[in-house]
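User: Could you check the structure of this?
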Amino acid sequence: MKSIVFDTSSIISLVTNDLLHVLNDLKKYFGGEFYIPNSVKYELIDKPLSSKKFKLEAMMVSKFIDSGIFTVNKELDVENLLLTANSIYSAHGKNIHILDKAEIEALALAVKMNSSVYVVDERTMRLLVEDYAKLGRLLAKKLNTRITVNKRMFKEFMEQTGKVNIIRSTELMTVAFEKGLIKNYVGEYKKEDVIDALLWGLKLRGCAISTEEINDIVKMESRL
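Assistant: Sure, the predicted structure tokens are below.
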């Protein structure tokens, strides 16, 4: 069975843009299952339900789990993988914490299930898998210090995870747009206006995508 795994950040981007309902039609088109690991459920539902912030969003996501759109996988043991990931970069002799358990567990689940894609909007995870050197440069700029990269730990991390296809909510919703699923909810507007609004909504609410990338996608979609 085909599958797609979501992390916390991607679902937050979707729910805060009122786009979760698009997943109903997208799942039918995909013909597979949508999964989240147990730690992502905790971040999305269990934790915010006990507070005031994001409580409404937690209720909305919970409804989608109850309806079967998302399947929650049982907890995975990812402590070793988490330790490895957070030992790749260091500064002044101390390791830099770059990833949390939910992100790592979602990645491990995608690997275990050989999922078609892993949907994550946080830049750190995507860059670690796709361009670890660039991530090191960004950390150096952000922290204004020299960063040491432990290539042995990075190699170990990649050996444990293998090659995972990572996309963001923007790519996922672009597919929904191309399949005509977005217009079911926004009405009739120029296609370039719809895709532009869609991508900017996701960017402004958490998805790590550049203005240049948005412009390129809008131009491409406008020509289709």
